[in-house]
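Q: Could you fold this chain for me?
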Amino acid sequence: MQVKQFRYGADNFSYLIHGQTTALAIDPGAVGEILAYVDRNNLTLDYVTNTHMHPDHTVGNREIRRQTKTEFIENETLHTLGTLLIDGEQVNVFHTPGHTEDSFTFQTGMKLITGDTLFNGTVGNCFSGNLKAFYESIKILLGFSEETIVYAGHDYVKYAMTFARNIEPDNQDIDEFLKRYDPRHVRSSLADELKINPYLRFNDDRIIALLNSKGLPTEIELKRWTSIMEYY
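A: Sure. Below is the predicted structure, expressed as structure tokens.
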């Protein structure tokens, strides 16, 4: 299965997961580009859905449905589906609340489409107010292989790396990651994230020492996560 990324607006991303004949559109703000790609590659758009229902992610829903009459999957329905079939292959759907209660992550092979739950180098704001649920969602994502590729809902890489460098000015992995950054195809591996993303590194000795220096709770994993999220 292939994942095609489309930029729209200043930093939003749409995605198309497809095989040889059928496709799934996720957060379809880049309507024109998505439909041109579908047409050029002789694909049938089977489904349209969203990582969550914030307006910047749903902005293309009405137009793409108007032009294609394809099946739209409401986020409430994603709760019960678990998987979608594209060209007979499974796209797994994980409920990953935290940023919002209705946030979902899509997995195909070694690729994750994480919406605003996990960005490349940072995480989303906890608009749901439920930091424990957010932590549990992050743990789901960290359960995948480190070679897994993360495709996020926005390109926040430069901002995220500036912030990460303020926290860890001596982290040379940040410089290496930025050398590979390509705004035409934005992604990271989970291995990258465990080196550069302070919000995922709550078990790293350097982050724990930093939290301790601020007098923040670190005795268990959940408290380390909460400390990072609340302090930074």
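A (continued): The mean pLDDT is 97.
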